UniProtKB/TrEMBL annotation:
It comes from Micromonospora inaquosa. It comes from the Bacteria. Keywords: DNA-binding, Transcription, Transcription regulation. Belongs to the LysR transcriptional regulatory family. Residues 1-59 form the HTH lysR-type domain. Residues 290-310 are annotated as: Disordered. It holds the Pfam family HTH_1. The keyword Magnesium does not apply. One of its GO terms (molecular function) is DNA-binding transcription factor activity. This is LysR family transcriptional regulator. The keyword Transcription regulation applies.
Length: 310
């Protein structure tokens, strides 16, 4: 027997003084209300209503049981409300600042379809690492090496003019290689200012003879893109970012650089929801979906490379 449902019928009938009206108020047929109250009477071993007259009246036993029945019904309603609030518990997630706002909005919508109340907090890679260890967020999309990543985004160099070859060799950027060639810098945006991306690029650059100042970290993605748009300098970025800034993109011949991302969360359920239920939606936010890698490498946004020298 469902004691809560039976008590709900008992409270409704007693409040309306009628099985018909009480059942209607409880949203159940009169026959169901009668069966539930009869089962409750059998369960507790006493009659709740005096049915000897046309009017339905509580027996002394029913009067004594009614306050407890009301408390049980109220508690059940309160538990249902608590459960709904718990299902709508906001899951605050620290995400990369480079995620486009529209795609983050799509992620939030997708999460709500799965009854996940997502709140996103854009932050840099170091800040995300710190936030996921505090109560401020429940989880974070953190930067990790490629080998342990759930999502991967290939990186290359972007310039305002097309590249003459399908890949870029760092040694071609050495100063003094040609008298007319200025010393060109590689600008690292803050999102890629992490050891597993910055250090290999710096080491290889030094090994092929680049000056230390030729590999530098920019203050922001916007500043780095502005420099790349207004000078011969190169922006380290994904193909998708290059297209957003109308820059020409080309992969590096070496080292092979990929952004890697994974989820860090304090609660296993949050980890599972982000890494499985919302996996594809997060991939789109990060630019890690397969569709963006189909363009011919080295081609500018909107068409093939002209082959002009950089």
């Amino acid at each position: 027997m469902d004691v809560v449902a039976a008590c709900r019928a008992f409270v409704a009938v007693s409040g309306h003084g009628s099985f018909t009206s009480g059942a209607a108020a409880a949203g159940i047929p009169q026959s169901v209300a009668s069966r539930r109250i009869a089962a409750l009477e059998e369960h507790f071993g006493g009659r709740l209503f005096d049915r000897s007259s046309r009017a339905v009246r509580l027996t002394p036993f029913g009067q004594d049981m009614l306050p407890s029945a009301r408390r049980l019904v109220d508690l059940a309603d309160a538990m249902a409300d608590d459960a709904e609030r718990a299902r709508l518990r906001p899951l605050r997630v620290a995400v990369p600042e480079i995620c486009p706002p529209r795609r983050l909005a799509d992620l939030v919508v997708a999460a709500r379809r799965q009854r996940i109340h997502l709140e996103v907090r854009p932050a840099g890679p170091q800040q995300r690492e710190e936030l996921c260890r505090t109560p401020e967020v429940g989880a974070a999309i953190v930067a990790v090496p490629e080998a342990t990543a759930a999502w991967r985004v290939p990186l290359g160099l972007a310039a305002r003019t097309p590249f003459p070859a399908p890949t870029v060799f760092l040694e071609t950027l050495r100063s003094g290689r040609a008298r007319t060639q200025a010393r060109r810098r590689i600008l690292i945006q803050p999102e890629d200012d992490v050891a597993h991306l910055r250090d290999p690029l710096t080491r290889v650059g030094q090994a092929v003879g680049l000056a230390p100042a030729q590999v530098t970290v920019a203050l922001s993605l916007v500043d780095a893109a502005a420099v790349a748009l207004g000078s011969p300098d190169l922006l380290l970025c994904s193909r998708e970012q290059a297209e957003d800034f109308a820059l020409h993109w080309c992969p590096l011949a070496g080292p092979r650089l990929l952004r890697g991302y994974d989820v860090a969360a304090g609660v296993r359920e949050d980890l599972d929801q982000l890494s499985t239920v919302l996996y594809a939606d997060i991939a789109r936010c990060l630019g890690a979906s397969d569709g963006h890698e189909s363009r011919t490498e080295g081609s500018p946004p909107g068409g093939p490379s002209t082959g002009e020298p950089t």
